[in-house]
Amino acid sequence: MTEVKRYEMFVNGEFVDAATDEYVASIDPTTGEPWYETPDAGAADVDRAVRAARAALEDPAWRDLSPSRRGHILRRVGDLLGEQAERLARIESRDNGKVLREVAGQMAALPEQWEYFAGWPDKLYGSVVPTVGSRHNYLLREPVGVAAAIVPWNSPLTIAVTKMAPALAAGNAVVVKPSEHTAASLLEFVPLLTEAGVPPGVVNVVTGLGPTAGEALVTHPGVDLISLTGGPATGRHIAHRAADRLVRTILELGGKSPNIVFADADPERAAAGIAAGIFAAAGQTCVAGARCFLHEDVYDDVLDRVAARAASIKLGNPLDEETEMGPLAFAGHMERVLGMVERGRAEGAVVRAGGVRVATEPLARGYFVEPTILEGVDNQMTIAREEVFGPVLSVLRFRDEAEVVRQANDTPFGLAAGVWTSDLSRAHRVARDLDAANVWINTYRRLSPVSAFGGFKESGYGKEGGHAAMLEYTREKNVWIELEEDGGG
Ligand code: NAD
Q1: Quick check: 208 pLDDT over 90?
Q2: Domain check: are 100 and 117 in the same one?
Q3: C or N: which end of the chain has fewer Cβ atoms within 10 Å?
């Protein structure tokens, strides 16, 4: 039995004892054993954090900081994070089971994220409106206020930074609530903010469950904006809560993304893209290419290649260098994933590969599911409509372009899509016709802090990344001035 570490909440620049006596255990998904716990923050704890954020907004140490200085501090955060990236990656990899190689890659990219947003504060300004006569009219771009950032377990620190960096660049204060399953990397990171010069209270972290800590945060009257990355049910719930107070929301939700291979595609490249699109992170990514559409002429060839790749994936401890796929993040999630496979089978899908929990020691103790391929899937089956968020690929056959675009779009979601083709016109045509907010052609899962990311339909609304993120985290104020003494009215 390993020692169970206890984390506290981060409020006003320091770790503080929570008022609550309730703690949530985080389970190591490789061993099934608890390894740390966090407070399940109640209303009083959340109130303390939101008050700290509100006070920080008013504090000259943050409010009156020159934009260039704010940028300098954010750049410094990125530098410090870079120095700690390896340590943080090991913690996060152990926490959510994603292989170290992948988490390390994500962590190594985070300084760039801070660097990008560090460039914004002194380049973000309003505009003068060309009015006529004696009235001068201009627009000011201001921070929104206190932003609540609610984060899922699949890429905890990356997603938290995706929200924190633009929010701080715009001059807001933030209260972050990480997932109850994976709070460790964020809690290990936040002291670096203080070290970089971010004033106390500008970033606070409350931990705990959705219905307790999360609910207290999204209903708190001191919160001006809610940015959630999570599942569609949570998104819908939070949108209702936000509507009660007419609070601005950014919702980055789930997906059921199509990955389409046309007959003219390079089969090996396409197979690699299909396999990586669903088996990277054990399928626990919002943009997982979960519905694979193969043209009938290349169906057998590409599927054989994808199946060969699936069979060669080495499962194991995510911290081992040679591991290619780790466990699912927690027991309940694994059970849901296996339940979805069963449901697919019951509705007529045929298991081509995997479909079961790994039963051999030592992996049998963890939450490992074999890379799974389901054939004979119909687009109306539950397995093709609901997000699985696991290593489960549904394969569908198609005959022509119009038909595959129609099927690809026939989903409640609209997050991402992949297109594999060597026909330039087709690539652009299909990209135009797909009802997905992110389209990748002859590649998959490319993301950059410079580029706006978001969803359509039930995948949510609002953008993260790029200039668009700065607009999300700011508000525009319209100012009119009468220049003539006898004007006005
Ligand atoms: P989840 O919706 O269960 O939880 C997300 C966060 O919301 C957690 O911190 C949780 O505690 C909190 N929460 C839950 N109920 C709440 C409530 N009533 N009030 C306030 N907060 C509440 O999602 P998850 O299982 O942690 O993550 C997986 C989901 O996230 C998938 O659907 C995935 O597609 C989605 N996701 C989307 C993106 C994207 O950018 N679009 C990225 C990663 C993950």
Answers
A1: yes
A2: yes
A3: C
pTM of the model: 0.96
CATH number at 18 reads 3.40.605.10
Please check whether residues 423 and 334 belong to one and the same domain: yes
Domain shared by 248 and 264, yes or no: no
**Token pair in block for residue 36:** 């740390």
Annotation says 321 is catalytic: no
* Total domains in the fold of the chain: 2
User: Is 386 in the same domain as 406?
Assistant: yes
- Of 248, 246, 209, residue with least CA distance to 230: 209
- Looking at residue 488, its pLDDT comes to 65
Q: Given a cut of 80, is residue 489 above it in pLDDT?
A: no
**Residues 103 and 231 both lie in one domain:** yes
How far, rounded to the nearest angstrom, does the alpha carbon of residue 11 sit from its chain's CA centroid?
A: 23
Give pLDDT tens digits for 374-416: 999 999 999 999 999 999 999 999 999 999 999 999 999 999 9
Which is catalytic among the residues 180, 252, 458, 464? 252
Burial of 346 from C-beta contacts in 10 A (0-12 / 13-18 / 19+): exposed
For a ligand 1 pocket test, name from 150, 249, 386 the mutation site with the most ligand atoms within 8 angstroms of its C-beta: 150
Is the same domain home to 195 and 100? Answer: yes
Query: Which atom of ligand 1 is found nearest the CA of 254?
Result: 34
- Active site includes 92? no
Do the domain assignments include residue 209?
A: yes
- CA trace torsion 374, 376, 377, 379 (10° rounding): 150
C-beta of 210 in contact with ligand 1 (< 6 A): yes
Length of the chain: 489
User: Which residues are within 8 A (CB) of 240 and not within 5 positions of it... i.e. 6 or more apart?
Assistant: none
- Average pLDDT of every residue of the chain: 97
Range of the domain at 467: 5-253+459-477
pLDDT in tens, 293-319: 999 999 999 999 999 999 999 999 999
Q: Which two tokens stand for residue 256?
A: 């059921």
- Inside any domain, residue 447: no
pLDDT (tens digit, 9 = 90+) per residue, 82-115? 999 999 999 999 999 999 999 999 999 999 999 9
For helices 67-96 and 100-118, give the axis angle rounded to 10 degrees: 170
Asked whether residue 163 falls in the same domain as residue 294, the answer is no
Q: Is the CB of 464 under 6 A from ligand 1?
A: no
Residue with the smallest CA separation from ligand 1 atom 22 is 210
- Tell me the sheet residues that pair with 351: 374
Catalytic residue among 180, 286, 292, 472: 286
